[in-house]
Amino acid sequence: MGVLTDDDPRATAKPPSAITKRAQRVWSCWPAPTDRTDSMALLSAITSLANPSRFASFADRALPWAAGVTAVLFAAALYLALFVAPPDYQQGETVRIMFIHVPSAWLAMFAYVLMAAASLGVLIWRHPIADVSAKAAAPLGAAFTFLALATGSLWGKPMWGAWWVWDARLTSFLILFLMYLGLMALRSAMEEPSRAAKACAILTLVGSVNIPIIKFSVDWWNTLHQPASVIRAGKPTMDASILIPLLVAALAFTALFTTLHLAGMRTELIRRRLRTLRLTTAARATLSPEPAE
Amino acid sequence: MTGPHAAFIIASYAIAFTVIAGLILWTVADWRLTRRALAELEARGGRRRPDGGRT
């Protein structure tokens, strides 16, 4: 923390002259690495963010920037999706639903992968921020999964003639939504945070088997859903006039997820501090009651 | 965004807007309520340690 010096690896990693004073404050919040090599310095900086108060300080400073980037990306994505991208030669104007549906589906799976990684952090390394991250990601993942299911249904009706079909991709995605709801219900049903963290981490890891099933369901089984057209072996099958707006929309959704996840983690850290204070206050009141008049 | 399927497109964007706006509002409200609760508890003298954590 503090002023950057010439010896500080951060001073050479980013050019301070090219960023504003506010950005410098955000950057200087990143803990000063003490090791000499770049990789060790980065590892040291990331590890030091495991300190909850240091993480909260970083989130305080980074959130306005993340929100600003998200707003700009969404403005660009909406403009490209609604006014620049041409109608598809087969699907016509309904292809515009794809600019919401596909990024939502990607983020729904990304959030679960993040939760699975955080669960490993809970169970193996007992990382203090890992469970905070997993808890904050669950409602976001559920919301994006719901959005993917709802927009997929609205896209399926005019293209397939059905709101819903029980094919492998749709069913596995519905299971993902139920997994999110189950994880949130399990966590809220357990009073003790450390027990809830372990139980949710185990259930998250068990449920992570569904992620490759979702991804490869369109290859393993005959489904109504189209196969992968962007993330696949070889180059994307989409024309650039559709692909670029889709990638910008995906960036916007990713920025939104990052912002909300950071904000959710910051709130969760305060909630845990609040719980500790309440327990401490209650215990102190029990041990040393007010003397009778 | 015209044509026979305009209603499906508009409904998709409306749902997306509603869900995203709901997420943002819920995140902000949760942050404010939690922070306020912590501030109230600290104002009433709630500390993790009797000296307020100064030692």
TrEMBL record, chain B:
Protein keywords: Cell inner membrane, Cell membrane, Cytochrome c-type biogenesis, Membrane, Transmembrane, Transmembrane helix, Transport
UniProt KW Iron-sulfur keyword: no
GO cellular component: plasma membrane
Pfam family, any one: CcmD
First-listed, main subcellular location of the protein, grouped into a coarse class: membrane
The keyword Signal appears for this protein: no
Family, similarity comment: Belongs to the CcmD/CycX/HelD family.
Cited function: Required for the export of heme to the periplasm for the biogenesis of c-type cytochromes.
Protein name: Heme exporter protein D
